[in-house]
Amino acid sequence: MKILAISGSLRSQSTNSALLRAITKLAPSEMEITTYEELGELPHFSPDIDGDNSPQVVRRYREALNNSDGVLICTPEYAHGIPGVLKNSLDWVVGSGEYVNKPVMALSASPSYMGGDKAHASLMQTLKVMNVTVVEPASFCVTLARKKMNDQEELVDAKTKETFQKAFSEFSKVIHSSMRTRAED
Ligand SMILES: Cc1cc2nc3c(=O)[nH]c(=O)nc-3n(C[C@H](O)[C@H](O)[C@H](O)COP(=O)(O)O)c2cc1C
User: Fold this and answer.
1) How far is the CA of 174 from the centre of ligand 1 (A)?
2) Fewer CB within 10 Å of terminal CB in the chain, N or C?
3) Given the CA of residue 77, which atom of ligand 1 is nearest to it?
4) Distinct helix (H) and strand (E) counts, the chain
């Protein structure tokens, strides 16, 4: 199964991007995880530049979503919300619907003990209104995220490792069910 991983941070030393790389190492072998690298290249969404002549980067983004069986998002919190670049990427597909019924594992990670809880709540609200299949048992905040990884970007906290193994198992179940539904349609 193909998973598209999206970090909500463009920062080179991003904790969220590092966490995505760390948890990729724990994912079941059936998951082929590809990182989406063009979040920062998407233009600001405007219906005026969408349609038959929409930018190539937007077409590639939509194709990447269409080709994925599930999406894994990990976002920081900026001013109690999600970063503008991540919201912009979601706005691009509200109308075109690539996220509709797509199984999504939605995480927020922060070096703080709050784990980006308000960004997570905001992300969940946006995904739900877009009719995304949010996999709730696999969607949560990761507190003190830097301390849970070593310099090799491996999870070192046993409880967090176990949490992610269970989360991936729930994510996988929902993706299998969604793939069966798609095959029957
Ligand atoms: C512009 C900006 C706004 C932020 N706002 C919040 C916030 O509202 N709540 C919070 O817990 N952390 C906030 N932070 C801290 C970030 O969540 C933290 O630096 C996090 O590591 C950023 O994610 P990244 O490491 O993946 O880039 C903010 C950071 C920046 C740069």
Assistant:
1) 30
2) C
3) 17
4) 5, 6
